[in-house]
Amino acid sequence: MCCDVKRRFLLLYATQKGQAKAIAEEIWQQAGAHGLEADMHCMSEMDKYNLETEKDPVVIVISTTGTGDPPDTARKFVKKIQDAALPPDHFAHLQYGLLGLGDSEYTFFCNGGKTVDRRLQELGAQHFCNTGLADDCVGLELVVDPWIDGLWLALKEAFLLQKEKESMSSVADAASDSLSAAPCIVHKLNLSSKVQNLELGNEGVKSSELSQKLIDINLAASAGDTKPSLVHSVPSLSQSTLNIPALPPEYIEVQFQDTHGENPHLSSLISEGTTFEVPVTKAVQLTREDAIKTALLLELDIADTVFEYQPGDAFCVMCPNNVNEVEELLHVLGLSEKGEYFVSVKVKQGTKKKGAAHPQHIPERSTLKFILTWCLEIRAVPKKAFLRALVECTSDAGEKRRLQELCSRQGASDYTQFIRDSNVCLLDLLRAFPSCRPSLNLLIEHLPKLQARSYSVSSSNLYQPGKLWFVFNIVDFPACPARPVSRKGVCTGWLAELVAPLLHPNKNTLDTKRGSSSTEKISVFARPNNTFHLPADPSVPLIMVGAGTGISPFIGFLQHRQKLREEHTDWEFGETWLFFGCRHQDRDYLFKQLRCFLENGTLSHLKVCFSRDSSTAEAAPPKYVQDLIRLYAKEVARVLLKEKGYFYICGDKKHMADGVSDAVVDILSMAMETDKLEAMKMLAVLREARRYLQDVWS
Length: 698
Hints:
Elements: E1 7-14, H1 19-31, E2 36-42, E3 58-62, H2 75-81, E4 95-102, H3 111-122, E5 126-127, E6 132-135, H4 141-167, H5 172-180, E7 210-212, E8 242-244, E9 252-256, E10 275-285, E11 295-301, E12 314-318, H6 323-332, E13 342-347, E14 365-367, H7 368-375, H8 384-391, H9 397-407, H10 412-420, H11 426-432, H12 440-446, E15 453-456, E16 467-473, E17 476-477, E18 487-488, H13 490-498, H14 500-503, E19 521-527, E20 542-547, H15 552-567, E21 576-582, H16 594-599, E22 605-610, H17 625-631, H18 633-642, E23 646-652, H19 653-672, H20 676-688, E24 692-697
Cofactor: FAD; FMN
Main location: cytoplasm
GO molecular function, one term: flavin adenine dinucleotide binding
């Protein structure tokens, strides 16, 4: 292909947390080295592109959010193409390739990408390469990297086909012959989220990649080291020529100002809705001290706000980074004296970054400590592009080489083991590689936005007006070889520390500021759930299945149902089942008062199991909720098939929800006297009818 004129393709991305945008930027950066020009836009910028008249190939990178929804930046686009009035040949002229991002821990894997892909196909658009579906559960790069590698050949072949069509457009017969041959030259990419063996020879090294020759040094490891670690590699990686990503262009400029002024209000950091600052009025530890996990119940006073919710809804808590980690980061960066200084963040003049813009989550003017505390996710696992940038900030040759290995194609398994799976963050890297001294602008460019954390509501506003309950486990990250420091979850650790005086007022008698009589406040905003609600018809029966803190939304369900029963004695109420499981009956049975709902008739059936308790019974009781519901297979089938009831699951997906789904499929198969495939189809019908609902997490 002639390289004098770069061929254009349209590059669209739709992102929720920045990953799809980062991948699109990587494609944009690599395009030039392949003699191509990527016209990159966010999918929401619909005034800057027009698929109805687009003649060039289109590349789409799109993530998934919530329970399988397209990201917010794709909603207008999806709504437009979902118009039922569009004819089936509306996009017949369009050639496209799509890369979807998702997490297989969730039920609707890559559904944002699948939704767009399916609809474009329905409207006549044609693939010029196969759709890639990248799984964040095992590592996006396992699909993203080979998909991008194959994209360039697929694009060039699409351009050849396009040129052939154009040159023969004046001769109808010749054009017909050309079109009939088209399918045999379209380059298809067969990708899965499985690890693939990629043989990268010299021919695979493009100008967008740097060929790093072996640096013959001792990586500060003893001669006896035979196993790799975060800071040490072994042959063959330590002796390999590396293909490392192109260096991302810098685009942020940071200027220190004075110490005068006020930081912006936290509400200015949120675009999702109205933020409310509400007091925490109650904190209860639901588990015993010797329980494996510590579960807390917090009560918020929302009486003086217009905050509204339904049982089953979720809401978000704005949380700061750990204060000690912020102080340590300032120290490592040599900026301890600058924490209270206001900084101005601007786009660097003359930057080569495509579409460089001021990050929306960084205030125009705030103190450095405010940015590191409230704006940047300093616990984020560093992406390979960040590691590549850190290479340039590292003076020690051995440390530089190891960082290059970790961001290289050849070091993919080391990256997964020592960075991704070990939950290593920037601070961990700076401890492990002490000669690495990144600039502040680099952190702002590469660290993602500090996301508010989502929690399920565990109460009913009808049952206790002006109050909101929620339940959570304090997340623990034990130390590991790659990260020798243990730590707690960003939000759960902060909340636990915040409410400690309410839990143990006697332990804070010397601290009058945080004594039991004080009221701490947190900032929250609503995140309504459009599906995980009680049936509109109270006579419809329902089955609830939860393990551990997965019982949380069902407490709200039962409170709400109890209040409705009290207020509407003439109403008919359907049968209610609750299957609950935990480790130990005496340590983490979170809501033993469930029996109160059973006694007053709100709950028809309560079935519980305890996975770690030993039993002396001749027939061992079921350990897990999926085993428990199998004991009541006839009743479950009756509720779902004959009485058109609802089925709710809340809890851990991998270790609970998937097992429950398998059990339900077996129950349906037996009740319908059919094979498992037909039962799975029935489960899909229940999902589609929103009678089989999940609120799960990984």
